Every structure is written in structure tokens, then in C-alpha cells.
């Protein structure tokens, strides 16, 4: 149907007909898309349209009620036992979550640990890797997020922008194949958004697969390979940002874009 | 005042004080250890575990501690379980204190922001590990004040052991009073010892709290 | 079961004794504790320091030691109140120690700025107390008061140790008669638990109500 599809690299993540009900309301009403390896996929939409819920479904923090998510050809969250599909336990999902990391709007750094300790915690404790090796890697990561000088600072001693960059480094320390970003700059003062977006742009340039929810239209336009506009749990428009954002076809997206620009 | 009843029996009182300390310390440790799984059960996804923990919490908080001690000492033999006075007292005090401890632990675990639990899940950290290394140290700051005030109550509660024939401080005091009939001197000394032990407990609590404080 | 039937009147009398002792102690210690808290707020260190020491001592001592002091030491000093009188005195002293702390915290929670605000509005002292201070104090005091009271009933079982024939004492006598300790202790525990449960439900209702009002959620 779309000739562009043929030229795209193979999908690393596929989302088929995902439905999620929360408190009796259908928050996601059948979402379909694929994400190519190494690409940046942006999700936009008004507050309450279901963006966070969708992102949290992708790493199974929230379990979809219907549909399936396929990661590298494998169905996520379900194991085939004979003819039947069996729900995986939380424990079994952990390995998948290590491949698909997540960065939150509210940073969620561990308050009792320094930046360095936050970053090395999971690789050392979960992956049981040698501490020295992990610390050396963490230094490189801190350098990448331009925080080499803050390695022994505690979260409450850092600005929001610094905390968020540590959170990104913490997620990267698990060497994920993809990262999910849920409005990671929304809680930041305008002057601090830039430093976080710069780091994210670097990651995109390095070829990390990224799926992000963002209200930063300039960033989405400049960095995303594909944009999905959601409205009340439905996929409204989808395509390359220069097309979708410049020439919105639906009145919903037109209204949304006008409101964001203001 | 006739202080010789105290000085003359200083050895007995000192030994009884050690018993009080041992009973209180054992109960403190055991009641906290018992309370943790109960606190987790109370919010478990498995409904029967939730119900059991809920019943445990309510009944042990509603029953007099003394009734639990009597149950352990006078009641259990009827079921063929014979406990010596000290284990019976420790069992009764532990079961009673765990009911309160579990509520404090539960409240503290709930007070840790949801985002912290989610960050752990998103990093692929198994729940037991997340609990031990990341959640508990944060919960500790909220947990310590109510927990340690409950542990102070436990020190006081250890006096009940005297009523199941344990020769701790209060029991020894009662024995000396009936021997010497000098209640004023003996009870003054006993009161001072209890207050001093309380002071030690508060000092320990302050030290532990400092451990969990964040650097400025 | 026979024991319980045979001992039923005595259990009933013991339950009634426990309830009225608890009620009397609660009323006395609340009134005296509140009065001392207000007094120490008004009179300063001359009252507040001795009150703090009193409160620290009686919150730090085992109930049993306080009761023994009232039951054994006071007669030795020439004041014999008997078992029930000693128990009431002992529990009232302990209750005052806790209630004074609870009311002190309640008074301290009133923001001094409120007084300025009411003065700016032209409210007089009595009106300020009645409309502003009192509701605020009640809001902070009531949950703590309910928690303390719910926990405090059970402590009355200790009175059995100084020959007060409350529920636990009747239980011990019945055990000696019948050799069915487990059942009898459960009955006694059940009687206390029933009284405590009524107060615990009250505690939950009160704290829920006031948690809602201050906007804090659990
Ligand atoms: N636990 C829940 N129970 C009931 N409804 C919920 C729950 N969580 C979210 N919702 C509802 O689901 C809808 C989608 O929420 P979601 O957080 O995914 O939106 P969003 O697009 O991320 O919004 P925002 O831009 O404000 O972050 C909202 O209407 C929200 O009220
Ligand atoms: Mg959201």
C-alpha cells in the first residue's frame, strides 16, 4: 500500500491492536504501529489521550487487555506452551525490561544514592557485573550526558535537568536496545529542557531506537523518523513528521498543533 | 527510707535487669522480622494472604498483650505445646508487637513514591532485590519514628512477663517487695532502671535515624 | 463450656468493671491532660517543664510498675486506695501523661499567624478560640486521642495483677477451677477485643474523616 514501507529496515518492535481499559474506560482502543531498529518514534497528543498508557504497555508496566506486542519477533509477556499462550510472571518480564529501558517525567532517581550509585546499581546488583568495569562505563555515560563533574552528587542536590540526564545515563547503563521516554522534559523549567533534549538528540544520532512521548514539537520535527498522533485512545494520524506536522489532515491534529504552538 | 533493701539485693536486681534487656531485645528483633512478611502479605495480590494478614493485624491489636502471654504460657499446654516462661513471654510479646509493627511497615512502604517502584521494574530489578536495596532504605526514614516508639512500648511490655513467672525486673521487684515489705525504695529503683533503659533505646534510635538521613 | 456458663455472672460483672474504670480514667485523664497542656501553654516554663518530666516518666514506665506503686507503695506511705482505687489512680496518671502530650501537640499545631489574621478581621479572643482555635485543635487531637484510647483499654488487663477483679482476673480464677485455660483466655481476649474493636472502628472513622479534611491522603 505505502511504497515507503518496502524501503524501511526491519521492525524491531511491532504493536498489534493493543487495547487497554482502566477503571472501566477504554483508554487505548486498538493501537497498531511498528518501530524500525535505530529509528526515533514520537507519540504526540493532548493530555489524557493515552500516550503514557501506551508507552507503559510497551514495557509491560501496564499489561494490555488485548492485542500483542512483538519484540524482535517474539511476543512480549506471553509464552507459548503447546497450543496455548500463557501469561508471563513479573519475574519473566524483567529480562525484556532490561532490553527496553524507560525514562520517566519525574526522573525517579533513588534519593539515597549519588548519581554514580544510581547508574551502577542495576548493572552491579542485577547483572552481577564487576563493579570496576561498571564504574568505568558509568564515567563514560556521565560524560556523554555532560555530568562528569556531578558523579558524587545526590539527586536532591541536582537541578531537574541534571537529574533527568542522570536518569537517562542510568537507563543506558543496562545497555538497552531501545529506550522509552515519557515526557521527560515536561517537569523541567524551560531553560533546562534544552540540555536534556541535546542529550536525546545525541542518542538518536548514535542510532539508539527511541520511542518518545513529547510536547516539544521542534524536537519531534527535527529528530523523529515517524510521528503518531493520538486522540482519545485512537491513532489519529501517523507518518513522517514533516508531512504530518506540516499538513495535518484531521481537524483534531489541526486543533492540537495550534494549541501547542501557542 | 531504708536503702539497704536495694543495696543488699543489688545482684538480684542486676540479674533481673539483664533478663528484661534480653527479653525486650529478643522481642524487638523477632517482632520486626515477623512483621515484614505480614506487611507484604497485607497488600499482596493473593486474596487469602491479604485476609490472613488483615485478621492477624486486627486481632493482635485488639487483644490485650497479657492475654497473648497467658495464651502462650497457660493455653498452649492444653494443645500439647509446653513453653518455658521466658519463651512463652517472648512469644506472646512478639505476636502482639508484630501486629503494630506490620502496620507501620506497611504505611512506610506505601509512602515510598510509586515512581520508585516503577523505576525498579523498568530497570528489570527483581522485587526482593528492589525492596532490600532501594525501597526499604527510603521507607526506613518514615518507619523509624513510629517503629521505635512501639519498641519503647515493648520494653514496657516486657514487665508483663513477670505475670507468667519470668524473673525479670518487675517480677524480681514484686518478689523483693513481698520478702522485705519495702515497696517504696524498690519501686523507685526499678522505675529509674526502666527510664534509663528507655533513654538507651532513644539514643540507639537517634543513631539509626542518623544512618538513614540524606546528606545536606 | 460449663465453666463459662457457671462463671458467666462474674465475667459480666468483670466486663462492666473494666468498662466503667476505662470510661472514668479516660474522662479524668482527658480533662486533666488538656487542662495541664493549656496551662503550660499559658504559664510557660514553670508548668511546661515539670509537665514534660511527669509525662516522660509516666510514658516510660511499665503500667504494671505504676500500678504496683499505687497499690503497694502508697499504702506504705499512708494512703490506701484499695485495688480498684489504685488501678484508677495509676491509669489516670499514665493517661494524663499521654493526653497532655496529645493536647500540647494539638495546641502547637495552631499557626500563630491565625491569631494575627483573626485580629485583623476584628474577632475577639473568645470568638477566635471558639471559631478558629478549637476546631483546629480538635482536628489534630481527635485522631491521636482515638488511637491512644483504642490501645489503652487493653492495658486494663494488667489491673488483674493488683487484685482488681476485671476480666483477666476472673479468667485466672476460672482456669484454676476448670483446667480449660485455652478457651477461657480466648473468651477474655474476646471480651477485650470486642471493646477495643469498637474503639478501633471509631479510630478509623475519626482519622479517615480528618485525613479528608486536611487534604492528606493515606
Ligand atoms: N489507573 C487509572 N484508572 C483509571 N483511569 C486512568 C488510570 N490511569 C490513567 N487513566 C485515564 O486514562 C487516560 C489516559 O491516560 P494517560 O496517562 O495515558 O494519558 P496521557 O496521554 O499520557 O496524558 P498526559 O499528557 O496528561 O500525560 C486518561 O483519561 C486518564 O484519566
Ligand atoms: Mg502521560
Automatic annotation (TrEMBL), chain A:
UniProt xrefs under PROSITE patterns: ABC_TRANSPORTER_1, ABC_TRANSPORTER_2
Pfam families: ABC_tran
Keywords: Amino-acid transport, ATP-binding, Cell membrane, Membrane, Nucleotide-binding, Transport
GO terms under cellular component: plasma membrane
SUPFAM superfamilies referenced in this protein's UniProt entry, alphabetically: P-loop containing nucleoside triphosphate hydrolases
Topology with respect to the bilayer: Peripheral membrane protein
Species of the source: Faunimonas pinastri
Location of the protein in the cell: Cell membrane
The protein, known as: Amino acid ABC transporter ATP-binding protein, PAAT family
Record keyword ATP-binding present: yes
UniProt GO molecular function: ABC-type amino acid transporter activity; ATP binding; ATP hydrolysis activity
Chief place of localization: membrane
UniProt cross-references to Gene3D superfamilies, sorted A to Z: P-loop containing nucleotide triphosphate hydrolases
ABC transporter domain location: 13-257
Keyword Transport set for record: yes
Family in the record: Belongs to the ABC transporter superfamily.
Automatic annotation (TrEMBL), chain B:
TM stretches of this protein: 12-39, 51-73, 79-100, 142-166, 186-204
Domain ABC transmembrane type-1: from-to ranges: 17-205
Keyword Transport: yes
Family matches, as Pfam families: BPD_transp_1
Compartment(s): Cell inner membrane; Cell membrane
Entry-linked InterPro entries: AA_ABC_transptr_permease_3TM, ArtM/GltK/GlnP/TcyL/YhdX-like, MetI-like, MetI-like_sf
Principal place of residence: membrane
GO MF: L-cystine transmembrane transporter activity
Top-level taxon of origin: Bacteria
Membrane topology: Multi-pass membrane protein
A GO CC annotation given for this chain: ATP-binding cassette (ABC) transporter complex
Keywords noted in UniProt: Amino-acid transport, Cell membrane, Membrane, Transmembrane, Transmembrane helix, Transport
Family the entry assigns: Belongs to the binding-protein-dependent transport system permease family. HisMQ subfamily.
Protein name as catalogued: Polar amino acid transport system permease protein/cystine transport system permease protein
TrEMBL record, chain C:
InterPro entries: AA_ABC_transptr_permease_3TM, ArtM/GltK/GlnP/TcyL/YhdX-like, MetI-like, MetI-like_sf
Topology in membrane: Multi-pass membrane protein
GO MF entries: L-cystine transmembrane transporter activity
Domain called ABC transmembrane type-1: residue spans: 15-203
The organism's place on the tree of life at top rank: Bacteria
Presence of the UniProt keyword Transport in the record: yes
GO CC terms of this entry: ATP-binding cassette (ABC) transporter complex
NCBIfam families on file: HEQRo_perm_3TM (TIGR01726)
Family the UniProt entry places it in: Belongs to the binding-protein-dependent transport system permease family. HisMQ subfamily.
Protein name: Polar amino acid transport system permease protein
Amino acid at each position: 500500500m505505502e511504497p515507503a514501507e518496502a524501503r524501511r529496515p526491519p521492525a524491531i518492535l511491532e504493536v498489534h491492536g493493543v487495547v487497554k481499559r482502566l477503571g472501566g474506560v477504554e483508554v487505548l482502543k486498538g493501537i497498531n504501529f511498528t518501530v524500525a531498529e535505530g529509528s526515533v518514534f514520537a507519540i504526540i497528543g493532548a493530555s489524557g489521550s493515552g500516550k503514557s498508557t501506551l508507552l507503559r504497555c510497551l514495557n509491560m508496566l501496564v499489561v494490555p487487555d488485548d492485542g500483542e506486542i512483538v519484540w524482535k519477533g517474539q511476543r512480549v509477556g506471553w509464552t507459548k506452551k503447546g497450543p496455548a499462550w500463557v501469561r508471563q510472571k513479573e519475574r519473566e518480564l524483567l529480562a525484556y525490561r532490561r532490553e527496553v529501558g524507560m525514562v520517566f517525567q519525574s526522573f525517579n532517581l533513588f534519593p539515597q544514592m549519588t548519581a554514580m550509585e544510581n547508574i551502577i546499581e542495576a548493572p552491579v546488583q542485577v547483572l552481577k557485573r564487576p563493579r570496576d568495569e561498571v564504574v568505568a562505563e558509568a564515567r563514560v555515560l556521565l560524560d556523554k550526558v555532560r555530568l562528569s563533574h556531578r558523579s558524587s552528587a545526590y539527586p536532591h542536590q541536582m537541578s531537574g535537568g541534571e537529574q533527568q540526564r542522570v536518569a537517562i545515563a542510568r537507563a543506558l547503563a543496562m545497555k538497552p536496545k531501545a529506550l522509552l521516554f515519557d515526557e521527560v522534559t515536561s517537569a523541567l523549567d524551560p531553560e533546562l529542557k534544552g540540555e536534556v533534549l541535546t542529550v536525546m538528540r545525541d542518542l538518536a544520532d548514535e542510532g539508539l531506537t527511541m520511542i518518545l512521548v513529547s510536547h516539544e514539537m521542534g524536537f519531534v520535527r527535527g529528530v523523529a523518523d515517524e510521528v503518531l498522533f493520538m486522540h482519545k485512545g485512537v491513532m489519529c494520524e501517523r507518518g513522517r513528521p514533516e508531512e504530518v506536522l506540516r499538513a495535518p489532515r484531521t481537524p483534531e491534529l489541526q486543533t492540537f498543533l495550534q494549541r501547542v504552538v501557542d | 527510707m531504708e536503702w539497704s533493701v536495694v543495696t543488699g539485693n543489688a545482684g538480684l536486681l542486676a540479674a533481673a535487669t539483664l533478663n528484661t534487656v534480653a527479653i525486650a531485645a529478643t522481642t524487638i528483633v523477632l517482632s520486626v522480622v515477623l512483621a515484614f512478611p505480614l506487611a507484604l502479605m497485607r497488600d499482596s495480590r493473593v486474596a487469602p494472604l491479604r485476609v490472613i494478614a488483615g485478621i492477624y493485624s486486627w486481632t493482635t491489636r485488639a487483644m490485650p498483650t497479657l492475654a497473648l502471654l497467658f495464651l502462650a504460657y497457660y493455653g498452649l499446654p492444653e494443645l500439647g505445646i509446653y513453653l518455658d516462661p521466658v519463651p512463652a513471654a517472648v512469644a506472646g510479646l512478639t505476636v502482639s508487637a508484630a501486629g503494630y509493627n506490620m502496620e507501620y511497615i506497611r504505611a512506610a512502604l506505601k509512602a515510598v513514591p510509586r515512581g520508585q517502584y516503577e523505576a525498579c521494574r523498568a530497570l528489570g530489578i527483581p522485587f526482593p532485590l528492589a525492596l532490600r536495596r532501594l525501597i526499604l532504605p527510603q521507607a526506613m526514614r518514615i518507619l523509624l519514628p513510629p517503629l521505635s516508639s512501639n519498641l519503647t512500648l515493648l520494653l514496657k511490655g516486657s514487665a508483663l512477663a513477670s505475670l507468667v513467672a519470668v524473673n525479670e525486673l518487675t517480677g524480681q521487684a514484686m518478689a523483693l517487695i513481698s520478702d522485705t515489705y519495702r515497696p517504696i525504695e524498690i519501686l523507685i529503683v526499678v522505675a529509674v532502671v526502666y527510664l534509663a533503659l528507655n533513654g538507651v533505646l532513644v539514643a540507639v534510635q537517634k543513631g539509626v535515624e542518623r544512618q538513614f538521613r540524606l546528606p545536606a | 463450656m460449663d465453666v463459662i456458663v457457671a462463671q458467666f455472672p462474674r465475667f459480666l460483672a468483670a466486663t462492666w468493671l473494666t468498662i466503667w474504670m476505662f470510661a472514668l480514667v479516660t474522662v479524668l485523664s482527658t480533662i486533666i491532660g488538656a487542662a495541664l497542656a493549656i496551662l503550660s501553654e499559658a504559664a510557660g516554663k514553670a508548668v511546661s517543664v515539670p509537665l514534660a518530666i511527669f509525662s516522660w516518666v509516666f510514658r516510660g514506665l511499665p503500667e504494671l510498675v505504676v500500678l504496683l506503686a499505687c497499690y503497694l507503695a502508697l499504702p506504705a506511705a499512708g494512703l490506701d486506695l484499695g485495688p480498684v482505687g489504685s488501678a484508677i489512680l495509676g491509669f489516670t496518671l499514665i493517661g494524663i501523661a499521654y493526653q497532655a502530650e496529645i493536647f500540647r501537640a494539638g495546641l502547637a499545631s495552631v499557626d500563630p499567624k491565625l491569631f494575627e489574621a483573626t485580629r485583623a478581621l476584628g474577632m475577639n479572643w473568645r470568638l477566635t478560640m471558639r471559631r478558629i482555635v478549637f476546631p483546629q485543635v480538635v482536628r489534630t487531637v481527635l485522631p491521636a486521642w482515638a488511637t491512644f484510647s483504642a490501645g489503652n483499654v487493653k492495658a486494663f488487663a494488667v489491673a488483674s495483677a493488683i487484685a482488681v477483679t476485671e476480666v483477666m482476673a476472673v479468667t485466672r480464677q476460672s482456669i484454676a477451677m476448670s483446667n480449660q485455660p485455652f478457651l477461657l483466655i480466648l473468651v477474655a481476649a474476646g471480651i477485650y477485643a470486642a471493646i477495643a474493636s469498637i474503639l478501633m472502628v471509631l479510630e478509623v472513622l475519626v482519622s479517615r474523616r480528618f485525613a479528608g479534611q486536611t487534604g492528606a491522603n493515606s
